[in-house]
UniProtKB/TrEMBL annotation:
Coiled coil: none annotated. Keywords: Phosphoprotein. Residues 6-121 form the Response regulatory domain. Pfam families: Response_reg (PF00072). SUPFAM superfamilies: CheY-like (SSF52172). GO terms for biological process: phosphorelay signal transduction system. The keyword Amino-acid biosynthesis does not apply. This is Response regulator.
């Protein structure tokens, strides 16, 4: 698979992130890696290029907002989806201010999530081609 289909999903809830990665892989469109912490995600990003980052907000150690900020410093153009199971007014605003392109609340409809990821990556691919 091409580099423009590689996704990194970050969440400290291991069962959830493995399930989400499996769903994305089942589309046969995406290569998916998982990380269980923001620190591990940054390490993985040193070794591979990712077309999309999907991160949870609430994680021990480095949370999703801090991860988003650090990724923005290195990859200002990388699309980022921020997700949380603990919705709050501050999270969407903060995530957009830090440069995420969308914010979703867990639980979400799997079909909607896959469609969102597909749309974002298709848009990114078209942008790069023009």
């Amino acid at each position: 698979m091409a580099e423009d289909t590689r996704i990194l999903v970050v969440d400290d809830e291991e069962e959830f992130v493995v399930y989400l990665a499996w769903l994305l892989k089942e589309t046969n469109r995406f290569e998916v890696d998982v990380a269980y912490s923001g620190k591990k995600a940054l390490e993985m990003m040193e070794d591979k290029e990712y077309a999309l980052l999907v991160t949870d907000v609430r994680m021990p150690g480095m949370d999703g907002m801090e991860l988003t900020l650090k990724v923005r410093d290195k990859r200002p153009d990388m699309p980022i989806i921020v997700m949380t199971g603990y919705p709050s007014r501050k999270y969407p605003e903060n995530s957009f201010n830090l440069g995420s392109i969308t914010y979703i609340v867990k639980p979400f409809q799997v079909e909607d999530f896959i469609k969102l990821v597909s749309t974002i990556l298709d848009d990114e691919k078209q942008t790069k081609e023009t």
